Amino acid sequence: MVSEPDSALRPEPPAAPEPQEPQKLEPQKPEPQELEPQEQEAQEAQEPQNLEPQEPQEQEPREPQEAQEPQEAQEPQEAQEPQEPQAQEPQEAQEPQEPADDPFAGVPAPLVEAMRAQGFDGLTPVQRAVLDAQTRNTNLRISSQTGSGKTVGIGLALAPALIEALAEDGDHGKQREPRKPSVLMIAPTRELAAQVQSELAWLFANLRGLRTCVVTGGTDIGRERQALRRGPMIVVGTPGRILDHIRAGALRVDALAHVVLDEADHMLDMGFKDELDAITEALPEQRRSHLVSATFPKAVRRFADRYQPNALHIEGTRLGEANADIEHTAYLVRERDRYAALVNLLLLTDSARCLVFVKRRIETTELAERLAADGFSALPFSGDLAQGQRTRTLTAFRSDVVRILVATDVAARGIDVADIATVVHIDLPFDAETYTHRSGRTGRAGQKGRSILLASPHAERRLQRVFQQAKIEPSWSQLPGPDRIHKALKKRARKRLHEAMLIEEAPPEAMLEYAAGLLEQYDPATLVARLVELARPKLPREPMPYNAAVRGGPKHGKSKEPRDKNMHFTPFRISYGRHHGATPARLLAAVCRRGEIAGKQVGAIRIGERDSAFEVEVSVAEAFFHRAAKKDPRSPDQIIERADHMPERIDRGARRGGPRKHGGPGGFRGRDGGKRPFKPRGRGPKKDRGGPQS
Fold first, then answer.
1. What span, in angstroms and rounded, lies between the C-alpha atoms of 432 and 574?
2. What does the pLDDT look like over 162-177, one tens digit per residue?
3. What is the pLDDT of residue 184?
């Protein structure tokens, strides 16, 4: 078992005892001040390479380089206050920020410049806690939710070693051989690996000579090997591809100083334990191992205890705190009305980016195609897509070419797109952690977001448990109907008109002349009304009707609403009959799903052997046929077409008692031509077969 994880970064042996103390969650004893002279000399011999005075030491007039130390010692209180919480109290992240004039206290200057360029005003709590703990040179176990700034926090922990290594390269001149990687970061998905690399790239942009490399499945392994030969200091990748490069000798891990596992809980859920075990066996013993996980169930804790001994647990943002800027809304919707509810919600959310979650990969394609057929700009995003297609899809989503992304939980872990206004859960999340990960895609960087759940009445209790575990109090609302959507569109158009009238800049002269001519030609009130109507945004499609579900109402059973006796119907035919397993219930479900209508809008149903007939209410028949006539990816052989009339009875096909195919009276007459004597049913008396009776 590795008990001295920090010795890979500090060559002096005396530094080993310090990591033993941080096993406690809130260590209180200040120990870094008690250094022997030899220890301090060795430590100071390395620290001048750093770009920032992160570890101010006591004055030692032994070395010429220590001439700089008295300058730092001019403020002894400020030099010691950050150091004590850095080493001992990572949980109390705000204490080092008492000098309010420097919210980036302790951060190396090149990183401060990069963070300010990205719009950072200071550090998040988890980033401050990581920065405070890094002076211990121990393993970090970070528990924090999505959107809390964990990746940048890890970057702050890696920065001193990277700056020191770059300074050593500068002292020795240009290396003849490419350097070996110093940092290995492992992520569960390709998208998350690319996201981590992108975050570190801008964070370390001002560190000249620092290269990063991404190695993931589904990409050209030859190009990855070329990138590894150039000597990147940081390698980010997925477990399977990292293991491939290690076994092939392309990725040399013997000089690693830091190893980071991001989304460790999700990585184990995806079945990467064997790959992680194999990678761990190849790693050097003297290294610092950091583990980031939203949650730490037993399986993750067991793996963490074996993977990173003597770890300091930093608890960042808890469940319910990570997404404080998110409005959580729940709707009760019957299963058959889920798509109608989704359409109406999308119509109401204007043109903002939206992420829709489903459970299965095939459902991403089905739902995205259905939305696209209704005029929405939607694309699927799942593990079934090739890497190039995934990249193009995310690019289209980021650039607003595509407004809606339909994704699975696994694929969405790597989505880092700004300004996602709404997250919709078509399928309920499995647990509170999944819900937090999903909803964490919105409400980022201080922006407001909205998380919407569509739950069937029988799943209300389960959803309440998820909310309780996630420490979230949602608002239960009524789904928007057609009237509410049209009112919202009118209000939106009027708002745009008022905003346009507040513009101080005058319209072009030619436009004013044209407007004057229109006012002379038409009634002013009528003209303005027409212009307002034209300014109203065009809908991809009309809002869909649905039957509202009531909280606490009946969870099962049919609707009690009586059917209107004066309804008129249009007949249709479908190539789906008894031979294919059709029943009235199955046919009704297929018709409602494909045509997006309610069950009460379907009239009579006639099941045939290979074809069936059914009726649809006249008022929705045209829209039904427009949608149902398209090829169904789930059942491509089922073709729906118009019928001339509704048959009273559909031919059930040849039966055993019917006429024979090649003439003759037909009918089954038994083995003896029907002359067999009649025998009553039931068991008669037992025959005496002779022999002994038992």
1. 43
2. 888 888 766 555 554 6
3. 95
Q: What is the mean pLDDT of the chain?
A: 74
pLDDT in tens, 361-381: 888 988 998 888 888 899 999
CA dist 53 and 348 (Å) reads 53
Residue 587 in contact with residue 614, Cβ under 8 Å? Answer: yes
Counting DSSP H helices and E strands in the chain, the numbers are 24, 18
Look at residue 407 and give its three-state secondary structure: strand
Instruction: Give phi and psi for 267, each to the nearest 5.
Output: -65, -40
Name which of 35, 73, 39 is nearest 56 in CA terms: 73
Count of Cβ atoms closer than 10 Å to residue 264 Cβ? 27
The single-letter code of the amino acid at 231 is G
- What domains are there in the chain, each with its CATH number? 5-31+68-93+104-315 (3.40.50.300), 319-352+419-555 (3.40.50), 569-642 (3.30.70.330)
Residues across the chain: 694
Q: Give me the helices (H) in 374-506, please.
A: 387-398, 409-412, 432-439, 460-469, 482-501
- CA-nearest of 178, 184, 427 to 289 is 184
pLDDT tens for each residue of 340-354: 889 888 888 766 789
DSSP output for 564-631: PTT--EEEEEES--GGGT--HHHHHHHHHHHHT--GGGEEEEEE-SS-EEEEEEHHHHHHHHHHHTSP
Give how far Cα 336 sits from Cα of 262, 282, 557, 633, Å.
Answer: 39, 52, 13, 18
The answer to whether the beta carbons of residues 334 and 307 sit under 8 Å apart is no
φ, ψ at 262 (rounded to 5°): -100, 140
> Rounded distance, CA 147 to CA 324, Å?
10
Residue 239 phi/psi, 5-degree rounding, is: -55, -45
Contact between 173 and 131 (Cβ < 8 Å): no
Q: Is 160 helix (H, G, I), strand (E, B) or coil?
A: helix
Q: For Cα atoms 526, 492, 448, give the angle at the middle one, nearest 5 degrees.
A: 170
DSSP string of 164-224, one letter each residue: HHHHHHHHH-S-SSPPPPSEEEE-SSHHHHHHHHHHHHHHTTTSTT--EEEE-TTS-HHHH
In degrees and rounded to multiples of 5, residue 391 shows phi and psi of -65, -45
- Three-state SS for 458? helix
Record the pTM. 0.53
CA 140 – CA 380 distance, rounded (Å): 36
CA distances from 256 to 5, 235, 246, 289, 310 (A): 11, 10, 13, 10, 19
For residues 122-159, one letter each, b for 16 or more C-beta atoms within 10 angstroms of the residue's C-beta and e for the rest, the string is ebbbbbbbbbbbbbbbbbbbbbbbbbbbbbbbbbbbbb
> CA neighbours within 13 Å on the CB side: how many for 427?
14
Strands of the sheet containing 353-357, edge to edge, are 378-381, 404-407, 353-357, 420-425, 449-455, 326-332, 475-476
Cα separation, 279 vs 247, whole angstroms = 9
Rounded CA gap, 141 and 136, in Å?
Answer: 13
